[in-house]
Amino acid sequence: MNWRHKDLLEISQLDPDEIAHIFETAARFAEVNQRPIKKVPILKGKSVVLFFAEASTRTKTSFDMAGKRLSADTFSLTKSGSSLQKGESLKDTALTLQAMNPDAIVIRHWDSGAARFLAERLDCSIINAGDGWHAHPTQALLDGFTLHQVWGSFAGKTVCILGDVAHSRVARSDVELLTMLGARVRICAPRTLLPAMVQTWPVEVFSDVAKACEGVDAVICLRLQLERQQAGLLPDLREYACTYGLSPRHLEKAKADVKIMHPGPMNRGLEIASELADCGASLVLDQVASGVAVRMTLLHLYLTRARISA
Amino acid sequence: MAHVDFFIRNVSWQDRTCDLLIGEGRVLELAEAGTVAAPQGASGTEIFDAAGLTLLPSLIDAHVHLREPGQEYKEDIASGLSAAAGGGFGQVMAMANTSPVNDNASVTRFMLQKAAESFAHGPWVRPVGALTVGLLGKELAAAGELARAGCVALSNDGLPVENTELFRRAMEYAADFGLKVIDHCEDPWLGKGGVMNEGEVSSRLGLKGIPTVSEAMQVARDILLASYLDLPIHLAHISCRQSVELIAGAKERGVKVTAETCPHYLLWDESRVEGYDTSVRVNPPLRTRDDVLALRQAVRTGVIDILVTDHAPHAAHEKEVTFADAPSGISGLDTALSLTYELVRSGELEFADISRLWCWNTAAIFGLPANRMQPGDPADFVLFDPDLAWVATAGALLSKGKNTPCLDKEIPGRVMAHFLGGRAVFSRLEAITLKRP
Questions:
Q1: Residues 6+ apart with CB under 8 A from A66
Q2: pTM of this prediction?
Q3: What whole-number distance in Å separates Cα of residue A163 and Cα of residue A169?
Q4: What residue numbers of B does the annotated binding site for Zn(2+) cover?
Q5: What ipTM was predicted for this assembly?
Q6: Which ranges carry the Aspartate/ornithine carbamoyltransferase Asp/Orn-binding domain (chain A) (predicted)?
Q7: DSSP character for A197?
């Protein structure tokens, strides 16, 4: 069968077989990334626009590097460098880009649904690199791939997602992916940072970090946006760090080989103790490396609609 | 006997086939078909066989946004009244959030003059004045001046007054001029920044929610004030079960509270936002299925007194943005009767409820004239074809606002002719000619 999707908007568009295929392919690209010459001609002549209306370092660089390693031409566009800054509508910016006939647009935008908005209007592939609080499917895929590289299988594994789940697109996509692959998922946050009707999510909910970490195989820390304090959702940052920041004492009852992850950028000492970010259990830099391989895979699949094994 | 201008035969009225005599702008007689004596030898009487059509009193919409002055590209008074005429509405209460705001007599008079220029014989604009100057919630607007200029009620609508003391004084002051206060119930803090109902769907879509308690808390405040002051209050576009329960309890205790909701809250729930469809972005937002069921029950039992459209036209480019960026509102005048009829067809409402919810109760609440089909009543009526389905294409909608979830969908029942003061102001029937200036 051919890759059936035009766009990647959220994890729920994929099925477990497709995710397995992404992981297998990403493993091969990860090998390419270890070679002295890290370039293959798969996407030669293809053009990819990196349209980042919201600030990003690692995701944008990761896509840029992924595209270039596949020999695609990548073009960057940011809000400050685009007519969005002058008040142009997203639709007009998108149509302008479309007129230049790219093969894919990788979009990050502050509004939930922005990637879908483009996908419904443009012929080229749209890859969602984060839309509002809604979804960050490529981050979830790289998180999943990173854990898959360590574990091989998600059966019997328990993952705790810790921090501001309510405002996190990473958390939403991670929950979808991890549960689809068979892991049990816990989320832990102060009640003010839990999504409404969280009881309908396929997760166990905790407010005590140590309890949430009991017996877990991995903890994914989320970045705390500092403006949450101004928004009245938190008393102060010290209180948050002392109560909800992941520290070694929280992991005393976790599995002995527990893994620690963070999508970055990290506020060290706030949502994660610095020594945990750097310890042997940390997969934070593996996530970054996996990101390039996963994004190479996605660009390859979506731009070529490559045949995959049935 | 008065001269008979129209003799409308075989029209369906309350499950009977009737004949209707109209003369000098009023209903002369409405009775079982065949029992009304046809005018003999009178010249100038138009006779129309309305077999298959149903008679309704001309409808009143107590909540519309006509956008003029200030945002004529979305709608102007002429286009808004055109949609009203075609949708079966003889009177529309126009909210004050124009630019400039309708907080003084000159704006009120301007609106009435524009209406008279475009539709000299109706539909009629019934302006709703601002409750506070500039809708800013700081100082009371001049209710006396607004009443004398023609305003029929006062409201801050989409910008509810946060200062409870000021709101109390506004209710008291408005009462001196016989003006009801209409309140958009929304706690300004609980709903701040929200774009849809807070719940499972908003969490999944990553959209900031507006909780039902944001509305219900303000409903409770208004009920407490109305009770304490023994003054009437009218609650706008109620959207949730909690509010309904509060209103029901208040009515039982004799509080002078009346309430409205819109067809869209009776038909659709928050799941319509899936896919980020901006045509269903509305404030208050579409709520849960449970809220929809509670509202239907409240409308059937009279806890909710009337239906309104909250007609909120927007230009196409304004809605073709991301969900969070889109303005709130559905364009409603063209489709309201069809959507209400959809509720009748599905058994949620009786056909007779249409007259009650869209005309008689509205007239009673705001002191407006209405046709009860009694001899001497103003001959304001609609001939409605319940069997004619139509597709709400952009071209078929008379409002400039095409922002409706019904766009390009088939909806049931259509206004075929609309009479005001015995004069046809709108007609889709060849045999009935328009009398326009």
A1: A292, A293, A295, A296, A298, A299
A2: 0.94
A3: 12
A4: 63, 65, 157, 184, 237, 310
A5: 0.91
A6: 156-300
A7: T
